[in-house]
Amino acid sequence: MTLYTRRQIVVLLILLAIAGLGLAIGHWRRARPDAADYLEQLDRAPAPSSSLTAPRSGDGTASPTSSEPEPRRSRRRKEPRESERPQGLPTDVPADTIDLNRATTVELAQLPGIGPALARRIVDTRDAEGPFARIADLGRVRGMSARKAEKLRAFVTIAE
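Predicted structure:
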């Protein structure tokens, strides 16, 4: 006497395979956030203009139709301009760079994208595992992606 029929076992195996694939994809996305972001940007490419565009309102902007959401704008630029300050930069960020191996939690929390909890984890990781040899070593801090570490490159330094 079997507990499940052959058909039920096949369905269960398919569900397990789908769940395993979902876990594998999630792991891949966490391990390679830059590649995952690049693939998402491919899906968000602007639609080609056609003669069936939405009518424009008086201020010159296109009004989105109710059945079609407005496409997301790309958050990533190819080359940052040197004269431009990064978006989301707090006004109290010091003009000079902060040394990652000497910075306090308060100083780190003033950086863009770094909150008090992440600043505390950076200091704890530095104390537990030793000083950072390069800025990319921020990746060993839980919650710090390679993308966020790259954004901080203009604001932090590693003293010799």
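Summary: The chain has two domains: 1-45, 87-160.
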